[in-house]
Amino acid sequence: MKQRIISAALAAVISAGVFSAPAQEIIGSSAVVYAASAVSAPSVSRKPGSYTSSASLSVKLTTSTPGAVIYYSTGSSYKKYTKAIKLTKNTTLKCYAEKDGVKSAVKAYKYKLCPKVTFSPEEGEFDDALTVKLSSKASGVTYYYTLDGKKPTTSSRKYTSSGIKIERTSTLRVMAVKSRWTSKYYTKEYTISGSSDLSGESILDDYKSKYAYNTLTSSQKQVYAKLFEAAAAHADKADLTGINVTTSEIDDIYWAFDYDNPQFFWLANGYRYTTRNGRVIGITMVYSRTVSEMNNIKPKFDAAAQKIIDKALQEDDLFERVKVLHDAITDMTEYTLSGPSYISEADGPLVYGKALCEGYSKAFMYLCQSVGIPCICVAGTGNGEKHMWNMLQLDGEWYNMDVTWDDDGDYNYFCIPTSQLTIDHRFNNPFTVPSATATKYTYTSAMGFTVYNTLNEAYNGLVEQASANWCNGEYTTTIYVKDGLMNSLIKKIKSSTFTSDLRANGCNARSWSANYSDRAITITLS
């Protein structure tokens, strides 16, 4: 109810509050002023909070004060409310009501939108392997996922249109990310009744299945077998009487044997042979360790290797299994140019933690063959200097792997095709190497990461991913670019617009730092 206030001064104005302006009514010679009662603040049709949405969220405003006009803001200015408000991003909705110049208190309601994702097929039990497809009616949604139940981040595998292949019972976790929305996490259980683990059966002693052995002729294979028997027994000689091989063949045979068999870490890099009538009748084995030394080192070697093998065999995904082996070697090994003979053998990394590229490669080959993965050593050059790396076979396809050059913590040489390797490597191998054209198990492909091919794509991708991570409490972001692009990207990041571009995407970081190689850059925000 209005209060009547009588004033002797006709022009007097009495204020009823901060937001209200009193009404004046002139009666005769005196002014009668009515102080307007309070106006009720608007209420909302949806409680503030997080909503899973396909595209937008509709919010209606009402006030209990008859005749009051509502004004609202989703940004910097207010508008008159006439119909339901359509929210298309995370929004703080501010509003007030006004009547007769009297304003209500300003109310603020915070809404967060999360992408609604459809899984096809939905979780459940299946007889065979399947491919799961993800979709959302919301535009611009990016998905990251894991298959081991771990919470995904933007460093997890990125979903592609080919879907998610599930070959064994898995807990699929998906993070759906959309710019200026709140990320949404989903967990789905897929049970594959017909699934089985990778065998993981060692092929170390099954030399007849090994790649280099099968590049040899029948008589050359016989020599290979004699070398294998002699090395396993730490014998002085391999008797080749009656096999009928020439001196021109021996070198290729010996290195085929050596590049196939990393388990004989007591062998030295060389051999001697004896001929009769132009034919080689025997090879004298050259060892870097005595029998006593071999027997002393081998238990340590076996124990160190088995610890890594056991960890790898816990992974049912082939990519993850290889990654365990790769990471074990790079994490435990210090590169060195000089030292005892072990730096060129598998016990360098596994026992002593030091190695040349030969030691890195032989230790990795040992681990691969121990879990049933065909793997060889390959010789050549890297940036013009003598070098050794590996080739391994996954799902019937060959890949190049350079664990030595990945020792700085990245995965630039993880299961890459020869076309990518030969940017800075050249082959100079004693036997013909297999063709390697597949990309399924490259680090970027297996993890679902985008490899950016242009400067603008790389810069915009970095800004968007770093901003999304920041909003989700992740302060480190890594992206990958094609060869030759990194220097230009670094220059662009150093420009004055980088922090403002982050802010425009909802990231208010005060500073940043970067670590980068030729193909990968990691930005840390603070």
Give the overall shape: elongated
Please provide the count of β strands.
34
Percent range for β-strand residues: 25-35%
Q: Could you describe the largest sheet, including whether it forms a barrel? A: 6 strands, mixed
Structural class: alpha+beta
Total domain units: 5
Number of helices, where a helix is a run of at least 4 consecutive DSSP H or I residues: 11
Rg from Cα: 35 Å
Low confidence ranges: 1-36
- Percentage of residues in helical conformation: 10-25%
Q: Write down the overall mean pLDDT.
A: 89
Distance between the termini: 56 Å
Describe this structure in words.
The protein has 526 residues and is α+β, with helices and mostly antiparallel strands. The chain has 5 domains: 4-34, no CATH class; 43-114, Sandwich (Immunoglobulin-like); 116-192, Immunoglobulin-like (Sandwich), CATH 2.60.40; 200-442, no CATH class; 451-525, Ribosomal Protein S8, Chain: A, domain 1 (2-Layer Sandwich), CATH 3.30.1370. Helix content is 24%, strand content 32%. The strands form 10 sheets. Strands 5, 8, 9, 11, 12 and 13 form a 6-stranded mixed β-sheet that branches. It has a 5-stranded mixed β-sheet with strand order 15-21-20-17-18. Strand 33 (512-516) and strand 34 (520-525) form a beta hairpin. The protein is elongated. Residues 1-36 have low confidence and may be disordered.
